[in-house]
Amino acid sequence: MGSNCRRNRVEPGGACYEGSATSDALKFVTQRAADNPRLLPSGEAPSVLQSQHQSQQVSIVPITEATISSFRRIISLLLPIRYPDKFFAESIANPTSSSLARVVIWHERPRTAKRKQEQEPSHSGDAPDLVPSNSNSSTTTQPDDVPGTVVGGIQCRLEQLPFHPSLIPFPKPPLDDSESPRKYCYIQTLALLSPYRSKGIGTALLEAIITTLCTEQSYKGTASIYAHVWEANEEALEWYVTRGFQIGNVVKGYYTQLKPAGAIIVWKDLGVKDYLRQQSK
User: Fold this and answer.
1) Which pairing describes strands 182-192 and 147-161: parallel, antiparallel, or unpaired?
2) Cis link prior to 12 (omega < 30° from 0)?
3) Contact partners, residue 147, CB within 8 Å, separation at least 6
4) Choice among 83, 186, 240, 255 that is catalytic
5) Which residues of 100-223 form beta strands (DSSP E)?
6) Is 240 a catalytic site residue?
7) How far apart are CA 270 and CA 211, in angstroms?
8) Is 53 a catalytic residue?
9) Of 168, 179, 152, whose CA–CA distance to 267 is shortest?
């Protein structure tokens, strides 16, 4: 899954201009969608994991002090953009089931006796690459603590925006005083080591966030989830489109350290069907 490559939010230093999404990458995705109707946004995510065997090898858990070092190393390895310490402090600010920052742990030996376990997350020690599957309370674990390796993660934040993300960069004048900003979820980063791509794990990470948005009371009313995608990253754009995301404007000059420097807005509205689907799980 290539959506993690060079696709993280960097303050553009004011170099934001509205443009239509006409990059070569967008043309590529548009043509692929025309050639293959299955690539058209359907609002339904593909199968989360390829098999039951693989689902027993994967844990998706909130980021804690036990996993933050591994998460940080993966971000540094895969992405050409340096994140400030504040970003990673926010990663572990809410290590509970309502967290919008998750890591995925791969277990070489499938877990067989999964059960729900509610306990306080671990906050002790530096994060090794190898962590126990029950190092956090929000996922299914098994009694014999099958160890695993952190292989990727996702981090989002909740924002209140004056306009729908499809209008980014926002038009002027600003929002009328009679209107109220709505809540949107912004994907700050989504990264996965290459040996673990094409297994449905990236989709599972995204689904974990959508499930949290639709089931946690504190996120009630979140209207959409959106991200910036580097305009040259054809694979990432296609990945989002196949998962029901729409393609918006180009924000020129968004990535000051990349050439080309533009970012394409992708978004997915969360409707009644999403809320009902997640709450019925």
Assistant:
1) antiparallel
2) no
3) 107, 130, 131, 132, 133
4) 186
5) 101-106, 130-132, 147-161, 182-192
6) no
7) 11
8) no
9) 168
Round the CA-based radius of gyration of the chain to a whole number and report it: 19
Retrieve residue 89's tokens: 């402090």
Q: Flag whether pLDDT at 236 surpasses 60.
A: yes
pLDDT at 29: 55
* CB contact at 8 A, 184 and 159: yes
Active-site pick, 228, 240, 254, 255? 228
8 Å CB contact between 112 and 52: no
Overall pTM > 0.85: no
Instruction: Tell me which residue of 129, 142, 149, 136 sits closest to 196, measured CA to CA.
Output: 149
Residue 80, amino acid: P
- The tens digit of pLDDT for each residue in 4-49 reads 343 333 332 323 333 445 455 555 555 554 554 434 443 444 445 6
